[in-house]
Design goal:
CATH superfamily of the largest domain: P-loop containing nucleotide triphosphate hydrolases
CATH class of the largest domain: Alpha Beta
CATH topology of the largest domain: Rossmann fold
Number of helices: 15
Helix content: 40-55%
Mean pLDDT: 84
Strand order of the largest sheet: 3-4-5-6-2-1-7
Structural class: alpha/beta
Strand content: 15-25%
Bound molecules: guanosine-5'-diphosphate
């Protein structure tokens, strides 16, 4: 039996106690199935009403009435899945929902697999693959920015952007093939400059898109952040301030933060996975040296380094080692204890770390400025959440492949290869972009995308 031949059903709201719960039924028999478990109070019948109609009544099974309910009828193709859909909204208790679902299954529906409603929407041309992925991102979005950008993707921003690039490449490829294949026809010759312009435009658009991936990931998953600095400069105090609660041990004895303490915080819209580490000191203490080594590693891998210094003290050798170690890393120098008299040599820090913020972690002063600078360093500041954005690894790999193919086409053009050779590369780029939007994705890729969905969506 083909996928669309079945009528599927699932509970589409969370399996928890709530005011309203929804059971969604989709497929050719959706209205017949629903009418076997629902009796309307008025004269309107599920089988005869037009689409977008709500009917009040009762759901029942062989043991009797289950609950009051409102059913909403959608008629193909004007529904989420593109098939006939009936949604039964009843009260949100677990028992009621499960009993109603059982009645619906007894009436002829089969349980929907994870993501199957959205998969059908995709197969029926209601959504592109990138839009379907955005539905999933929207469900799991944690921050406001992430949700807003998933919503723009759901509206098809990425799909339209990619389609624009693809159609530019298709035009060039079509023109080239026509000219190469039908030399006797009067097709005007396409010049190297025209091809060059088209390819360069595609390359730049792809590069811009690819750059959105890192910012998008920061928005969705947060960024690995290392708080580093010698003992007693105020790292733990700062971390506690950012986390909003006491977490790592704060003491006056240098070297007490030995392990890495981790925490996820939202600082002015940026999600930071914070790790408070030991300082980079020379030490004979075995336990402490392990901490120092961990700190060094963390410095190398972190997406953001918050380097803390004590403004009331001169720069020590350890401070100098830290400044040296983070040269060229995405780092912010935090000059802490700004409430005390300043002794620190700022010029030395400024010459190596471009971003510098004064804080008093103890009083909380400077933390807003720090949030602003973090957003700036991570590229979130002017990030347009309504712009097209690469949202996941699958999309990134396709876009990367397309860009490499465009690069190769440009190289072929510059080395005066035949137009045929250029065209082969352009074809590769187009294939990668069609896979990205799902217009030419293999079944395995499509299955993998929907496999990650939850049941009922
Ligand atoms: P860590 O070793 O770098 O984690 O430093 P801690 O956070 O444990 O702080 C060491 C000491 O400095 C504690 O006594 C803190 O209360 C104090 N301290 C932290 N931040 C400030 C600050 O901004 N101003 C002042 N005056 N003291 C601070």
């Amino acid at each position: 039996m083909s996928l669309e031949a079945t009528t599927i059903a699932a509970i589409s709201t969370p399996l928890a106690v709530g005011g309203i719960g929804v059971i969604r039924i989709s497929g050719k028999q959706a209205r017949q199935v629903a009418s076997k478990v629902f009796s309307p109070v008025g004269s309107r019948q599920i089988l005869t009403v037009s689409g977008y109609t709500a009917i009040y009544g009762r759901v029942f099974d062989q043991d009797g009435d289950i609950d009051d309910a409102v059913v909403t009828v959608f008629i193909a193709p004007r529904s989420y899945t593109g098939e006939d859909v009936v949604e039964i909204s009843c009260h949100g208790g677990l028992y009621l929902l499960q009993r109603t679902l059982r009645a619906v299954l007894d009436a002829g529906a089969v349980p929907a697999a994870a993501g199957e409603f959205t998969k059908r929407a995709f197969l029926n041309g209601k959504l592109s693959l990138t839009q379907a992925e955005a539905v999933m991102d929207l469900i799991s979005a944690q921050g406001e920015q992430a949700a807003r950008s998933a919503l723009s993707m759901r509206d098809g921003k990425l799909f339209r952007k990619i389609s624009g690039i693809t159609s530019g490449l298709l035009q060039t490829a079509a023109h080239l093939s026509a000219w190469v294949d039908y030399p006797e026809e009067e097709i005007p010759e396409i010049t190297d400059t025209e091809i060059l312009t088209a390819l360069t435009t595609a390359k730049e658009q792809l590069a811009t898109l690819l750059a959105t991936f890192d910012v998008g990931r920061v928005m969705k998953e947060g960024v690995e952040t290392a708080i580093v600095g010698r003992p007693n400069v105020g790292k733990s105090t700062l971390m506690n301030l950012l986390a909003g609660f006491q977490r790592s041990i704060v003491t006056d004895i240098p070297g007490t933060t030995r392990d890495i303490v981790e925490d996820t915080v939202n600082v002015g819209g940026a999600i930071l996975r914070l790790a408070d580490t030991a300082g980079l000191r020379e030490t004979d203490d075995v336990v402490e040296s392990v901490g120092v080594e961990l700190a060094r590693k963390k410095l190398e891998t972190a997406g953001l380094v918050l380097a803390v210094f004590d403004s009331s003290d001169l720069l020590s050798d350890e401070d100098m080692r830290l400044i040296e170690a983070i040269k060229g890393r995405p780092a912010i120098a935090i000059v802490n204890k700004s409430d005390l008299e300043q002794k620190i040599d700022l010029e030395l820090i400024k010459s190596s770390i471009p971003h510098l913020v004064y804080t008093s972690a103890q009083s909380g002063q400077g933390v807003e400025e720090l949030a602003n600078v973090i957003a700036q360093v991570l590229g979130l500041y002017h990030f347009d959440t309504s712009a097209a954005m690469i949202a996941n690894e699958r999309q990134r790999i396709c876009a990367e492949r397309a860009k490499t193919a465009v690069d190769e086409a440009l190289a072929a053009l510059n080395s005066c290869f035949t137009f045929d050779a250029v065209n082969v590369c352009i074809d590769d780029a187009i294939a990668a972009l069609l896979e990205l939007t799902g217009e030419r994705a293999s079944e395995a890729v499509v299955n993998e995308v929907f496999h990650n969905f939850c049941v009922g969506k």
